[in-house]
Model the fold of this input.
Amino acid sequence: MSAVDLSQFHKTFFDESREGLDAMEAALLALDAGSADTELVHTIFRAAHSIKGGAATFGFTDVAAFTHVAESLLEEVRSGRRPVDAELTELLLRSVDCLRVMLDRSSSGQPVVDAASEDLRAELVRLVSGATAAVATPVTSAAANVTGWEIVFTALPHLLQTGNDPLRLFRELQQLGRLEVVRAFIVDAAPERLAEVDPTACYLGWVLHLHGNVARADVDAVFDWLDGDCELVIHPLAEPPVATVAGVLAAAEGSPSPLPLPLQRRRATDTAAGSKPESAAVSVEGSSIRVGIDKIDALINMMGELVITQSMLSEIGETFQPSQLTRLREGLVQLERNTRELQESVMRIRMLPIGSIFNRFPRLVHDLERKLGKRVKLELHGEHTELDKTVLEKIGDPLVHLVRNAIDHGLESPERRRAAGKSETGTLRLDAYHEGSNIVVQISDDGAGLNREAIIAKALHSGLINASQELGDADVAELIFQPGFSTAAAATDLSGRGVGMDVVRRNVRDLGGSVGVRSVSGKGSTFTIALPLTLAIIDGLVTAVGDERYIVPLISIVESLRLRSDSVRRIAGGGEVFHFRDAYLPILRLHQAFACADAVTDIERGIVVVVEEDGRRVGLLVDDLLGQQQAVVKSLEAHYRRVQGVSGATILSDGSVALIVDVGGVVRLGRPCKAA
Amino acid sequence: MHESNPSAVPQLQQLTFNLAGEEYGVDILSVREIRGWSRVTRIPQTPDYLLGVLNLRGAIVPIMDLRLRFGLQRESYGDNTVMIIVAVAERLFGIVVDAVSDVVDIDQAAIKPVPDMGVVVDTRYLKGLATHAERMLMLLDVEKLMRPEDVQILDAALPAVQQVEVAA
Done:
């Protein structure tokens, strides 16, 4: 038996456990909504059981111990001995949260158990033992007197091949009570001669004594997974045990039995793995993606077609005659189509359904309802809409903020809703769908809508506007996205977390998207986020500066214009400014910032591209505009390093490289560095 | 390959090239490709010797001129100018040399240390000196050429600089 490095599976375990917890949470919330579906209970139980098994296998004993208690509670629910009530689901939801924290701590090698988790565990234990005392005693009075179980556990040869590990079982049993290995034996089916021994087979059996007041169901649960992989005889322990584990091991040492060595070896590797969780955490760095097999199949199909096209073209190429020109053209068209489809399929691999983000919201809404005393019906639509993985990871927080805001500020309390003639339960609707080359996510509520007066008062107070300004509804809505605007008067502990709508907008902008709001007083408001399908491709404007080509992201361009030299003014420090829509904007000469030779230096002959970043506008002076193009973003860091003012590079149709201008970086580059 | 010498002396295969009349060698295992001169895209905020970046089958690869790196002059880039693409720790970069000559085997034992003296080259980019066909061959240390430690220091310093700027 070779010592397998279990740490390589840790990441998978954590991923799967988190998925399990998500499933538990979703099922618990469904139960909470009043459904008495037994399948839901089974789902919860199965998830808890897998997490427990995995945690025990990988040596995360604290996680396993905690899950075990939760599982015992669930077992009672599953067998119908305990009704599902709000208190129970609340407790289990808290356990799910606690387990999430424990998993995070385990993966980063921190101490797993703290006071909060211990309190929760104690609470669970109290509930479990209280019930067994109340319910189990009258059923079988004998069961209460049981001092333990004798388990004769005989492994079938293929036990190890199915991924089971007897040691894990023993450890699980150990958590139930004091475990004693009375005797280990070699099964009759074992080969006589050593040469015939299959090293992957298990020829062992054990006689185990489990001491303590343990429910039979708990013992059975340990062996749940081994159905068909072992022979099992369990009966109540009659007489006090004689041997101890140490004694058996010592006795076995002298015999030719191969038992002690692997047992001890495994134990040694287990403790080694347990003692340095930090190194394990470091080695599991790097993110992975789960891809549906249908996407891979589509890719392989596409690849096949490409190969066919390629062979067709090379056949034409070998014996080319002018008469075949039409066929050649057809072939090239086919090649173009294949390439485009292949590109789309490859991009699709990075796409994940937005449902993974949406699934957080039932829980969030559940918690907020309780905290705020509001009643909310959550509707999710378009969970299958797919987004680039990077976009997906970054859109979560802004969405949570918007949902929180909608419930906290948007939806009214049941009393006020009734007074306004609406149903007491407010509706919060999340929508995701494709629109052109964008993904649109909408968060709409049927609450009171934006409070125009409060927003204007707030903006006046914080100096964002002055009293004489005439404001349309769109202008008012725009105010909530301004930095420094916070409805502090109305902020609760939920929304007053220092994250404002300006942060939401900035996060969305960082992803190359936009966010807007539409609100009807008394009817509700709708926030709309438009996101690009992927971050790997941007729309850019190709500009020429000297011999070089630079791509300016279209999203940050406000306008391009030609200036007359008399409209340019110099400011004391030597910087140039020009008048643009009621403001003076600095001019940044790109050829100076990037030190390009042979560039246009006369402002009248060049073109000024007005760009905006973080609300600041600057005019970039370039020689000429060459056109608009989709640019596949390549990183400079892959083979070189980050360069200030450049966010990446792309390859133009002639095969040469053009740099993509990082507007924010170039603005900083252009400013004289006072601190230095 | 090597004609004789069946003994167990470790051999190093070197790609030799010419730079300003001197002969250099670079470990063939780090060489990915040799290609003729083509235009590169300049990168701002970089030292002179870094000519720019090149599209190498979709990868953006930095190109440095070895003459400029060693403080020499470069008159012109022409048809004979050659780029050697080398890989150091998965990172690719190209070096521009005057001409590529040959692939030769060098006995590891025959490599002499570089004397600390006024060679045209800053000696820290050399692994050692070897003799081949009665001529001296300078063995280039490509890892030090790109000096990833410098790159790391620069990268580490960048955020700090930006913070200072923001504060200002």
Summary: The two ends of chain A are 63 Å apart (CA to CA). Chain A touches chain B through 32 residues (CB under 8 Å).
